[in-house]
Design goal:
alpha+beta; FAD/NAD(P)-binding domain; Jelly Rolls; 3 domains; 7-stranded antiparallel sheet
Length: about 600
């Protein structure tokens, strides 16, 4: 066989780690013209959201209304809801795969574990990974890197400054800080997926599983079927008192014993309503919550998240509760709630770009559960919805850095408004930054049914209970007329995809999040379909200088919230005619009462 093969890749941006943060970082950069390589050590993308771990994507929208994360994450979620109505995990994997694999400018290296790095002074010059499926070494050389691996693999390889464990109250003055710092973290979990059948199902545990005969031996964890369905067995959690990286295999072995023991308890040790339930799947790859956190130019704290901090360099946001899993994990008794430290937030907080690049390795950025934050600050940023938009922010910053030939710190100091503008244009929400509407749109005469001015106010969602969308009748056009002919480049639409769909937690028959939902699926449960409020079909027409109209686009099966239609033509006016939503019927059309909800209609 000879020596192992060694391939070299010259890129403009290299992302290590293909969880949701890494996937979105790589795709965002590639879409903005950056030659990108994404190196991931697993066969499927998505990290904790992949079929290997099966945690659904949670974020700000699950805790505060109308704060669902958008951008590329929403694009993927809508594609999944349309193509994957039964929420099959393999189809979900395939959607994440195609999002990266078929993206121009993006080279995807799966099953490739990053294990070497080379420095050029204080900058990272190249990384090398071993691809197990091909027995090939891959070396990627690039001027910019992002570590989205979760475990911060590039920190020990580059000397980038990190912190781990829980801070003392004296360091940042955080209410939830400890009297004395310690090295402990949140643990990791193996999730279960079970399914209700129409007959009794028996279960025989493996002989090496733990036996929990009483609820007390189970530490009173919530485990009654249906009543506690929405817990997703997160409490099968260990490792917080160990090394959350180097002890992972040992922790996994213990988690398997606990997980099978818990299912045995639910099936065989008393009545838990589980007679007709079968164990459909049990994960063998632990889902991690915490390990190493990089140190950037800014460290996000409990004060920031609780006070809804605004930053000049805000590039993302969060609103998930402070959700601190205590290191004891499964061993802690749940009856008093002592295994968790929680506090709900009332407003979204901004996340600064200065928390997304290394303080001492100037060309290294990061996104996901390893950003620059305290343990308590991180306890709300760590969920995958937030991690995903952090990834899109980092990928967008890479594009701006390339455009100006600068490093991330200079982007933060000089060009962050460009990053913000691109993110807003790409339908990413920033709570404290408003999108700029083009002068062409502001000055055009607008004719429509109802309050159409909201179509050009620069706010593309509901905020604080105020609806910034336009409600109009189907089949009635919305028209912009210009004072003189203009050469147009693009029509941009932002449609209603029900950003409040995740904010109905607690009742599994009401939850509508766009992923496979539960570790347990009721026999009578019907999966949530596609948002009925979404505009399905519409036409866009241009008016010629002689007053005649020509059709630019006729869309019949739209499934996306953000729609961009290229133009490259002269026109005196543009009109959008909404024809049908995914929930409208012929009855509505007949009586003219069908309505549509649109957040933005702009012409550039």
């Amino acid at each position: 066989m000879g020596e192992l093969k060694h391939d070299f890749h010259d890129a403009e941006f290299c992302v290590v780690g293909g969880g949701m943060a890494g996937l979105l970082a790589a795709v965002a950069a590639a879409r903005h013209g950056v030659k990108t390589v994404l190196m991931h050590d697993r066969p499927v993308l998505g990290g904790n959201a992949s079929s290997e771990i099966r945690m659904w994507i949670c974020g700000a929208g699950a805790r505060l209304p109308y704060l669902q994360e958008t951008g590329i994450l929403e694009e993927i979620a809508l594609k999944n809801m349309s193509r994957n109505p039964d929420r099959n995990w393999s189809i979900w994997d395939s959607i994440l795969y195609e999002t990266a694999h078929f993206e121009p400018n993006l080279t995807l290296l799966l099953n490739c574990a990053c294990c070497q790095a080379k420095m050029d002074g204080d900058k990272l010059a190249e990384v090398t990974g071993f691809q197990l499926t091909t027995y090939t070494w891959h070396t990627v050389r690039a001027p910019l890197f992002a570590d989205c691996s979760g475990d911060s693999i590039l920190a020990p390889l580059t000397g980038a400054e990190v912190r781990s464990g829980r801070e003392a109250k004296s360091e940042f003055g955080e209410e939830f800080g400890l009297e004395q710092a310690d090295p402990y973290t949140m643990g990791m979990s193996l999730l279960l997926q079970c399914r209700e059948t129409d007959h009794k199902v028996t279960f025989t545990p493996p002989p090496w599983a733990y036996t929990f005969r009483t609820d007390e031996e189970m530490h009173n964890k919530p485990h009654t079927m249906l009543r506690d369905l929405n817990t997703n067995f997160y409490w099968i959690e260990l490792g917080g008192l160990q090394d959350s990286i180097h002890d992972t295999e040992t922790v996994r072995d213990e988690l398997l014993k606990v997980a099978f023991g818990c299912w045995d308890h639910m099936k065989n040790q008393g009545d838990h309503g589980a007679d007709n339930w079968e164990l459909e799947w049990l994960g063998f790859l632990p889902g991690k919550r915490e390990s190493l956190r990089y140190v950037g130019d800014y460290i996000l704290t409990q004060h920031d998240v609780e006070n809804a901090a605004a930053f000049d360099d805000e590039v993302a946001y969060g609103a998930w509760q402070i959700d601190n899993h205590l290191p004891g994990g499964f061993a802690l008794d749940a009856s008093s709630g002592a295994h968790l430290q929680k506090r709900r937030l009332t407003r979204p907080y901004g996340i600064p770009f200065r928390s997304l690049y290394s303080r001492n390795v100037p060309n290294l950025m990061f996104a996901g559960r390893n950003i620059s934050a305290t343990h308590i600050g991180f306890s709300t940023t760590r969920v995958m919805g937030t991690c995903g938009i952090l990834g899109q922010a980092v990928g967008t910053a890479a594009a701006v850095a390339k455009m100006h030939g600068v490093l991330p710190r200079e982007v933060a100091a000089k060009y962050v408004r460009e990053v913000q503008d691109i993110l807003l244009e790409d339908d990413c929400y920033l709570p404290h930054v408003q999108r700029t509407v083009s002068a062409l749109n502001r000055n055009a005469a607008l004719e429509a049914d109802g309050c159409a001015e909201l179509l050009r106010d620069g706010i593309d969602r509901c905020i604080d209970g105020m609806d910034h969308g336009y409600y109009g009748k189907l089949h009635l056009p919305i028209t912009y007329t210009f004072s003189e002919p203009h050469h147009l480049h693009e029509v941009r639409l932002v449609l209603d995809s029900d950003l409040d769909r995740e904010y109905c937690t607690g009742n599994p028959n009401l939850m509508k999040i766009p992923m496979p939902l539960f570790r347990a699926i009721s026999y009578n449960y019907t999966s949530f379909g596609f948002p009925t409020c979404m505009l399905k079909s519409f036409t866009v027409e241009l008016q010629n200088t002689d007053g005649s109209w020509r059709e630019l686009a006729h869309v019949d099966e739209n499934i996306q919230r953000l729609v961009r239609i290229p133009v490259e033509a002269d026109a005196c006016a543009v009109r959008l005619t909404p024809l049908e939503t995914w929930g409208s019927s012929q009855l509505y059309h007949t009586y003219g009462s069908g309505r549509v909800h649109i957040f933005s209609f702009e012409v550039r």
